[in-house]
Specification:
GO terms for molecular function: cysteine-type deubiquitinase activity. The protein is an alpha+beta fold. The protein has a domain of 159 residues. It contains 3 helices and 18 strands. The strands form 5 sheets. Strands 1, 5, 6, 7, 8, 9 and 16 form a 7-stranded antiparallel sheet that branches. Strand 14 and strand 15 form a beta hairpin. The chain is elongated. About 22% of the residues have low confidence.
């Protein structure tokens, strides 16, 4: 095994099995040797809506291993060490994308970067890409059957794969898609394709959820609304207290006379005044 000399070697990583969720961390920065700093790569790059990982394993899988894009993490800003992070997450039930920007949540439609954003459709047989807007693709007609291409239902129609482009995405999340389903559209999750016994409960989005999940979501939503109301009331009380104390401090400072040195006076420490101004009960002043 040892030849006692320097030789060229090849290092590789083999994939034997794959998890239900794939996370791709993109290297979107370069190291500048002249300045010894990192710089963000701002050029746009494309990534597919659907990944076929069956042929990526060391031993190709006979069963389909198709992953669909389910989330995109975005870094806003030009610097590597600063900026703002948002998450674009797909609702698998409705096919719609949502942007989570701190406490702000926005609906993006059926495109991970908002309706009207550019995307392209490529043929899997190696033919040239055809660039269209998402609205054009959605309203186009596929094949001779005149089936409308619906972006949120499938990204592969008659051998076409949809791709997206972004200059700020830095992490991509793909979720394994279940190809086998029963007559009601529910996935067959186990290895022997046994169906999961659930009772569907209608929700506002038009999709169906198991009854126990619908009840749990309803309870969590009620708890969240209650917590928000309590926070709102607590915030109002604290703001009123702060406003009253500020007015009291201003009135004391405006009414406090400047006495001459001949008249008696008292010492008040700065710490005592700070505690009083911050609505902290200060200790009694001892002027003996």
């Amino acid at each position: 095994e040892s030849c006692g000399t320097r030789v060229d070697a090849t290092r590789s990583i083999k994939l034997r099995t794959l998890p239900p969720v794939l996370n791709f961390q993109l290297k979107r920065c370069v190291f500048l040797q002249k300045t010894t700093t990192k710089k963000k790569i701002t050029s746009a790059f494309s990534f597919p809506e659907e990944l076929d990982m069956a042929q990526r394993l060391s031993e190709p899988s006979e069963s389909p291993l198709t992953y669909g894009l389910s989330a995109v993490l975005v870094h806003k800003g030009t610097a590597v060490n600063s900026g703002h992070y948002v998450a674009h997450i797909k609702d698998e039930a409705s096919g719609q994308w949502w942007e989570f920007d701190d406490e702000h949540v926005s609906n993006l439609g059926h495109h991970p970067f908002g309706e009207g954003s550019s995307c392209s459709v490529s043929k899997t047989d190696g033919e040239a890409d055809v660039s269209k807007s998402c609205a054009e693709i959605k309203n186009s007609v596929a094949g001779e059957n005149h089936v409308n291409v619906d972006l949120h239902q499938s990204s592969s129609v008659n051998g076409h794969v949809e791709t997206y482009s972004s200059s700020d995405a830095y992490m991509l999340m793909y979720t394994l898609r279940h190809r086998k389903s029963d007559k009601n559209g529910w996935p067959l999750c186990s290895a022997n394709h046994d169906k999961v016994n659930v009772v569907a409960a209608p929700v506002n989005s038009g999709a169906s959820l198991p009854s126990h999940l619908a009840e749990e979501i309803k309870a969590l939503n009620m708890s969240y609304v209650d917590a928000c109301e309590k926070y709102k009331l607590r915030k109002e009380r604290e703001m009123n207290t702060i406003t009253e104390r500020r007015q009291e401090v201003r009135s004391v400072l405006s009414e406090a006379p400047v006495l001459s040195l001949e008249e008696p006076y008292f010492w008040v420490s700065i710490d005592w005044l700070r505690q009083w101004a911050d609505n902290v009960t200060p200790p009694a002043i001892d002027n003996t």
